[in-house]
Amino acid sequence: MENKRVVVVGGGVSGSLIAKSLQFRADVTLIDSKDYFDIPWASLRGMVEPSFAGRSVIHHRAYLTNGRVITSPAIDVTDTEVLTAEGRLIPYDYLVIATGHADHVPQTRLERLEQYRAENEKIKAANSILIIGGGPTGVELAGEIAFDYPGKDVTLVHNGFRLLQFIGQKASNKSLEWLKSKHVEVKLGQCVDLDSISEGVYVTSSGESIKADCHFLCTGRPLASEWLKETILKGSLDEFGRLEVDENLRVKGRKNIFAIGDITNIKEMKQGYSAQKHALVAAKNLSILLSGGKESKMAIYEPRSVKAYVSLGRREAVAQFPYTTVIGIAPGLIKSRDLFVGKTRKLLGLDPHLVDA
Ligand SMILES: Cc1cc2nc3c(=O)[nH]c(=O)nc-3n(C[C@H](O)[C@H](O)[C@H](O)COP(=O)(O)OP(=O)(O)OC[C@H]3O[C@@H](n4cnc5c(N)ncnc54)[C@H](O)[C@@H]3O)c2cc1C
Where on the tree of life does the source sit, at the highest rank (predicted)? Predict the structure, then answer.
């Protein structure tokens, strides 16, 4: 009997894992805007240590050895096919939407590695650096630079009144204190108008001037659901552009379309850890359907209050658990040294230590 066709759109945290998990049970096609999976929580280390990206930027082919990879954004979905920007129609029996967040990154792994090297040169050449955005990306980048390049003047400007608004106040306060202790100047409740830059001087919304040799924009990435707005799934998007899913992670009202990761409307903290769980539950459910099993046997995804770790340089981190928040070396031991890269690679069936060619 011919294998059923499973098409996965989005090769990030959840899409890569589900494609890898199903590749020997179905005819799997992964459609991604780029030809690699870039482990998001390791990306800031790549900017201060470009060789680190050799393990954390993974070519899709490395783990998807028995599937097809199409490098082109998906732009439309019908009941039977996905259309890519390069004009290919990819037929499916089962579809998984895992497009998470949109990012402006190069299309090939080699270009991405080159970009890390260029960003590192930019950091090395600068005496003063401005980071715009105080979410996890801005805070982790400030931590990486402050730790690896303690002689540089780092300023972080955030438009909110506390850092890391996706987690609790305690974690925000502790991170702020840590950054200050590393001489990072943090300005809250202000934005920077990038059109205002003149001879290395940036002006904030409060009229303050900041001198910096370069800047990094670390503001939030939008959800990558724009492309669904004129498709058969437009009625399944909620007011925030998230796909409504049922307890089995199928798009509501659809028998053969699943959605996983940050794009879903599941009420939980949007974390890669949860996205990986979604991938495993949806893979299990798809395996049941692919083998002609009963729908009633499908697994139910139950959101749990998860932990959140934000690394602060190479040794420390702030961690929020359901009942407590801790900062320092202990949570740092869990995340900050390897940034879960070995663990993530292992989950994809790859050698945790190998630097990809
Ligand atoms: C700096 C940082 C640190 C983080 N730290 C942690 C952490 O420590 N622990 C944790 O659990 N989570 C962490 N997260 C959150 C985590 O990365 C996200 O929750 C996770 O990436 C969501 O996975 P996803 O599969 O839904 O989407 P993503 O990983 O965002 O992947 C989406 C994929 O879809 C592709 N795509 C988008 N649109 C299209 C299209 N139209 N066609 C084809 N492909 C498309 C993109 O190219 C991308 O490959 C962190 C995030 C950041 C930014």
Answer: Eukaryota
Task: Round to whole Å and give the CA distance between 39 and 326.
Answer: 24
* Ligand 1 pocket mutation, candidates 16, 101, 312, 344, criterion most atoms within 8 A of CB: 101
Annotate 47-69 with DSSP letters as a single string.
HH-GGGHHHHEEEHHHH-TTSEE
> How much is the pTM?
0.96
**Domain annotation for the chain: domains and CATH numbers:** 5-33+72-103+221-302 (3.50.50.60)
pLDDT in tens, 12-60: 999 999 999 999 999 999 999 999 999 999 999 999 999 999 999 999 9
**Atom 7 in ligand 1: residue holding the nearest Cα:** 41
Beta bridge partners of 38: 57
Question: Distance between CA atoms of 301 and 264, rounded to whole angstroms?
Answer: 12
Report whether residue 136 contacts ligand 1, using a CB cutoff of 6 Å: yes
Look over the chain and give the mean of its residue pLDDT values, rounded to a whole number: 95
State in Å: Cα 263 to ligand 1 middle: 9
Could you read off the pLDDT of 147-171 as tens digits, one per residue? 999 999 999 999 999 999 999 999 9
